[in-house]
């Protein structure tokens, strides 16, 4: 337990400072790739030495010194960088926070999505390539290649290091929020009760969103995503049973939910809604999550309100996955048969999506068609890779 | 930074253009000329509009002897129909210019090796 605690503390300190240092060094050197290499090197050194030597009093100054020393060493042949680095004193431009520029460069739409995710984690959150690979269950070499290729493109294609112009901001911010949302989803779905070995991507996603909210105050969708993540995290303690098995929302022990966190996230959402007329997709999803979090029991869930929110969401984001989630609300507002009828049209788009078959199984069971329900569960099982979800589907097939 | 913008036509676009009346076609050309005027200061090479892909000839030099064939090097529904070179600060500026392009439906942006 104390080992875990120390590891969490280490990760938190690195995350608080690595991105800041990367931001300053990119500004200074004018070379994204070189600056990133230096910071990554300092981070890896810290992860090796801090567990034994203890976290230094000024971790930022420590990282800076290591990065600078390394820079003077590796950039020996590049007079231009070397000169700049040699003159550099601690603290580096203490008043500015370049991390916003850093985020926009990492999430540039000219980079492939997977590279955006990996770069953001590495450059802004200070994760090592090995940590990213472990979190996404892909070989380290794959992550390293994605990052190398992305950095090469940033330099060769002239991807700028700056905050987009006002008229470009909505689109570019949307890109950043998509990356964070992916990160959050990956962390949320793959998380298990056993966190000892896995990096908590949900924590990184919340931290990034809070960082954005601080640097771009008044962007309602940033606040919406922050509320959404916090509402989901508030239920964390109830999501797994003592054996680490996933517990469905309807079966969760609601006394384990963090009501303080729910109240704060809901207040944040309400304040934002008051200032901005029409809510965006993240605010709507957060509002749906809030409906669940505020219901004292599963039976008290305000399904008509949830259905209204899904309809609003569908107007902005007419995706098959959103329609799929809406059918659950339809079941409770209307009945399982109506929900099944709506589900029918989604099959071509969602045939390979495990949750489609899992929800279909639930609806069929509610409609008394247990043989078909079993068949749907089996389908879901075949498509699922996540261990906690596998467990849940297994128990459904064996117990009932 | 210098970028070459490669304009790509689709079969659908070519058909639509074919079906246009003279006045409509004139208007389409006017919009393209206007784009060239508006970005004259960044366009370093006005490039060229190319003849249709069926007029292309491809020569392959990687075999025992040069092989000459009819048509573009890749047979496809999307073909390069022209190009220009621009000189701008960075990719975001190139993207801004490309997003205002009123002609064919696909544009590839390639940085020029310096």
UniProtKB/TrEMBL annotation, chain A:
Residue ranges of domain RNA polymerase sigma factor 70 region 4 type in the record: 104-154
Keyword set, alphabetical order: Sigma factor, Transcription, Transcription regulation
Superkingdom per UniProt: Bacteria
Keyword 4Fe-4S belongs to the record: no
UniProt keyword annotation of Transcription regulation present: yes
GO biological process per UniProt: DNA-templated transcription initiation
Residue ranges occupied by any RNA polymerase sigma-70 region domain in the UniProt entry: 14-79
GO molecular function, one term: DNA binding
Domain DUF6596: 172-272
InterPro entries per the UniProt record, alphabetical: DUF6596, RNA_pol_sigma-70_dom, RNA_pol_sigma70_r2, RNA_pol_sigma70_r4_t2, RNA_pol_sigma_r2, RNA_pol_sigma_r3/r4-like, WH-like_DNA-bd_sf
One Pfam assignment: Sigma70_r2
Family (UniProt): Belongs to the sigma-70 factor family. ECF subfamily.
Protein name, UniProt field: Sigma-70 family RNA polymerase sigma factor
Organism: Kribbella turkmenica
Taxonomic classification: Bacteria, Bacillati, Actinomycetota, Actinomycetes, Propionibacteriales
UniProtKB/TrEMBL annotation, chain B:
Pfam families (UniProt xref): YCII (PF03795)
Domain YCII-related: 43-103
Listed Gene3D superfamilies: Dimeric alpha+beta barrel
Family: Belongs to the YciI family.
Name recorded for this polypeptide: YCII-related domain-containing protein
Lineage, highest ranks first: Bacteria, Bacillati, Actinomycetota, Actinomycetes, Propionibacteriales
């Amino acid at each position: 337990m104390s080992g875990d605690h120390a590891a969490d503390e280490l990760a938190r300190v690195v995350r608080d400072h690595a991105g800041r240092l990367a931001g300053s060094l990119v500004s200074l050197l004018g070379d994204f790739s070189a600056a990133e290499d230096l910071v990554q090197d300092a981070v890896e050194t810290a992860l090796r030495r801090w567990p034994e030597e203890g976290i230094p009093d000024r971790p930022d100054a420590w990282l800076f010194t290591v990065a600078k020393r390394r820079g003077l060493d590796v950039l020996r042949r590049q007079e231009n960088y070397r000169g700049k680095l040699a003159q550099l004193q601690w603290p580096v431009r203490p008043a500015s926070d370049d991390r916003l520029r850093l985020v926009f460069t990492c999430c540039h739409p000219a980079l492939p999505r997977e590279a955006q995710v990996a770069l953001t984690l590495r450059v802004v959150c200070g994760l090592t390539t090995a940590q990213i690979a472990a979190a996404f269950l892909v070989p380290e070499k794959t992550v390293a290649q994605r990052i190398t290729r992305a950095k090469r493109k940033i330099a060769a294609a002239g991807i700028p290091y700056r905050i987009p112009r006002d008229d470009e901001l909505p689109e570019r911010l949307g890109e950043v929020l998509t990356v964070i949302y992916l990160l959050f989803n990956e962390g949320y779905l793959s998380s298990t009760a056993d966190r000892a070995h896995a990096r908590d991507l949900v924590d990184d996603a919340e931290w990034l969103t809070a960082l954005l909210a601080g640097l771009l105050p008044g962007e309602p969708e940033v606040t919406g995503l922050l509320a959404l993540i916090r509402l989901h995290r508030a239920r964390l303690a109830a999501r797994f049973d003592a054996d680490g098995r996933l517990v469905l929302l309807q079966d969760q022990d609601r006394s384990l939910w963090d009501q303080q966190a729910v109240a704060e996230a809901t207040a944040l959402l309400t304040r934002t809604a008051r200032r901005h007329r029409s809510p965006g997709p993240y605010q709507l999803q957060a509002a749906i999550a809030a409906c669940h979090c505020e219901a004292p029991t599963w039976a008290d869930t305000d399904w008509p309100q949830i259905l209204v929110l899904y309809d609003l969401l569908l107007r902005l984001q007419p995706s098959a996955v959103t329609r799929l989630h809406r059918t659950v609300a339809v079941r409770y507002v209307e009945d399982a048969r109506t929900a099944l009828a709506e589900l029918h049209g989604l099959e071509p788009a969602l045939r390979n999506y495990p949750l489609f078959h899992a929800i279909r199984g639930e609806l069929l069971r509610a409609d008394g068609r247990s043989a078909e329900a079993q068949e749907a569960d089996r389908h879901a099982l075949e498509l699922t890779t996540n261990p906690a979800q596998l467990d849940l589907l297994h128990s459904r097939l064996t117990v009932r | 930074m210098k970028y070459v913008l490669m304009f790509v036509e689709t079969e659908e676009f070519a058909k639509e253009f074919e079906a246009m009346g003279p006045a409509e076609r004139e208007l389409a050309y006017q919009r393209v000329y206007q784009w060239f005027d508006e970005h004259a200061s960044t366009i370093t090479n006005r490039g060229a509009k190319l003849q249709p892909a069926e007029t292309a000839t491809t020569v392959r030099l990687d075999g025992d002897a040069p092989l000459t064939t009819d048509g573009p090097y890749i047979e496809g529904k999307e073909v390069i129909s022209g190009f220009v070179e621009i000189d701008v600060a960075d990719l975001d500026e190139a993207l801004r210019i490309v997003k205002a392009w009123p002609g064919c439906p696909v544009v590839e942006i390639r940085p020029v090796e310096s």
